[in-house]
Design goal:
Layout: E1 2-6, H1 12-22, E2 26-30, H2 39-44, E3 52-54, E4 60-62, H3 64-74, H4 89-111, H5 123-144, H6 158-168, H7 176-179, H8 181-191, H9 194-203
Parallel strand pairs: 1-2
Antiparallel strand pairs: 1-3, 3-4
Helix pairs in contact: 1-3, 1-6, 1-9, 4-5, 4-6, 6-8
């Protein structure tokens, strides 16, 4: 059985969504924020970050997008991502990578700005630059959604679930409704998906 180390409101949301939508049984271990991780968890996640997962064979894995992608490949019947020979596959890979390499790091700079400067006087500038970067990135994603239902085309994928998660982390989560209408549309559809709705009871993203 999969063993998932996670925390409400964290990147574990997309991993839990993937496991739930695929119907994969898993053990959830809640990691308390601000508490020093124990040695067992450090072996799984050297940085002490969630989500982290131990696979059935004992292999440890970190990074939310990588775990989500592995689940999609391991359980193709769930259609969590386009197949490797599907026309939507390049878009899936592109937007998963874009969100983890551009949006997620910028969001971290908003909420953990002191980590990104040695000058206390520069903290607000770090935050402001990060918000601008997030907004610019969402603008790019919104434009890509023009004329299509989901990021990969006509079928929902974990790239869309990931998008919902990072949008909810924006300091002004309702900004999407006016600034990025196609992102707002996708998020509204996802919030009506039973699995997603049920997960939010615990994660409280919106």
């Amino acid at each position: 059985m999969h063993k998932l180390y996670t925390r409400a409101g964290s990147g574990g949301f997309v991993v839990e969504a993937a496991l739930e939508m695929a119907g994969v049984p898993y053990e959830r271990v809640d990691v308390t924020k601000g508490v020093e991780p124990d040695d067992q968890f450090r072996e799984v996640s050297p940085l002490g970050q969630v989500p982290a997962m131990v696979l059935p064979d004992g292999t440890a894995m970190t990074e939310s997008a990588a775990i989500a992608q592995l689940i999609s490949e391991s359980y193709p019947y769930a259609r969590l991502a386009p197949a490797t020979d599907d026309a939507g596959r390049p878009d899936f890979l592109r937007w998963m990578a874009f969100q983890t390499s551009v949006i997620y790091p910028a969001i971290l700079r908003i909420y953990y700005a002191p980590r990104y400067t040695t000058d206390p006087a520069g903290i607000e500038a770090v935050k402001a630059a990060a918000v601008a970067e997030v907004d610019r990135a969402f603008g790019i994603v919104d434009k890509a959604l023009e004329g299509r239902q989901w990021l990969t085309g006509d079928h929902m994928s974990l790239a869309d679930v990931y998008l919902l998660m990072v949008v909810c982390w924006h300091p002004e989560p309702r900004k999407a409704e006016s600034a990025w209408p196609d992102i707002a549309r996708v998020c509204a559809m996802l919030r009506d998906v039973p699995v997603i709705k049920d997960l939010n009871v615990r994660h409280e993203l919106w």
